[in-house]
Amino acid sequence: MGDLKQRNLITAQARLRDQVAHALRAALIAGELRPGQVYSAPGLAAEYGVSATPVREAMLDLAREGLVEPVRNKGFRVTEVSERDLDQYTELRAMIEVPTVGRVARLSAEDPAVREALEALRPVAEEIVAAARDHDLIAYLEADRRFHLALLALAGNERLVETVGELRKRSRLYGLTGLDEAGMLVHSAEEHDDLLEAVVSGDATEAERLMASHLGHVRSLWAQGRDEPVEPRQKRRLGGTRTAS
User: CA separation (Å) from 144 to 179, 221, 231?
Assistant: First the structure.
């Protein structure tokens, strides 16, 4: 029984670490954790309502992903991402994602199983739009991630999906809060419906065009979001609930 309790404890700690890491990534993408700023594990732990240990472990995970860097005796600094970095990330994503959605569209035209898997993404596309309209940035980011990676996964290349996942983490959106308040996220969210329709119908040319256009729009959002002011950060609990600081 002692060994079982120990294993359960380790599993619970690992799960909490993953939850904190996910929440921190979302805060980075939303612009709530700002580039160049140093954040301490105890300070973030107080905001998330957890101990400093899972926060420190989660920040180390983010450091391995290049999202933050350790600062001796202070905490972790959010890494800066330049305009050149964003351009290069967008170029890489376009090189991978545009032809891949074309390939998935061609598979859809030939394989009913692929079309069925694509149809299963319609609720996710609807989630993206609903989250944008509800101003739920965490839900928006999570649904957007699931949609894009699941769509690419239908091409059958797991390493490709992992690579795009890493690029998405590094090319985080800046000032997403300001863009949301300006009502600019809804249009980008609605583009997923058109993209999915083209892929389901087997129109590879249209799917590739829409994907290229979508990535271009996302890059424009990054450019505008970098200039948008971000609201003062609020205390956040795991699961996305925030309380006024």
Answer: 16, 15, 23
**Helices 137-153 and 185-200 sit at what angle, rounded to 10 degrees?**
20
* Cα–Cα distance for residue pair 16/80, rounded to 1 Å: 27
Least confident range from 160-164, 171-175, 194-198: namely 171-175
87 with 106, same domain: the answer is yes
**β-strand pairing of 242-243 with 75-78:** unpaired
Residue 242 β-bridge partners = 236
The C-alpha atoms of residue 166 and residue 218 are separated, in whole angstroms, by 16
Q: Which residue has the tokens 């256009």?
A: 213
Q: Do residues 76 and 69 lie in contact, with contact meaning Cβ atoms separated by under 8 Å?
A: yes
Strands 75-78 and 38-39: antiparallel
Residue located via tokens 């992992």: 162
Assess whether 50 and 7 both reside in one domain. Answer: yes
Q: In a 3-state reduction of DSSP, which class is residue 236?
A: strand
Express each pLDDT in 136-165 by its tens digit. Answer: 877 888 899 999 999 999 999 999 999 999
Neighbours of 44 (CB within 10 A): 23
Q: Examine residue 30 and state whether it is found in any structural domain, yes or no.
A: yes
Task: Quote the domain boundaries for residue 46.
Answer: 2-80
Closest by alpha carbon to 29, among 133, 236, 177, 143? 177
243 in any annotated domain: no
Which CA distances in Å does 53 have to 5, 120, 233, 238? 20, 38, 22, 15
State pTM to two decimals: 0.73
